[in-house]
Amino acid sequence: MKNAERWLVNYGLLKDYILEHHFLPDKKKVENRGLLNWWKYNKRLMKQGKLDADRIKMLEDLSRLRDI
Known about the structure:
By secondary structure, the protein is mostly helical. Helices cover 71% and strands 0% of the residues. It has one domain (3-66).
């Protein structure tokens, strides 16, 4: 699987999680820790200016879903 495909898979998994639970995965629960780490890693890349505009928008959309 290519990196772009893997990114979209992780995005989809995290989006489904947030839609179901309305918050990010708990860092204390091992089964979802990978998704949380993926989120934090991408937020760090965003702050460093290393993500493209499409991915930034997608991550911002996830942030808005948490607030619903």
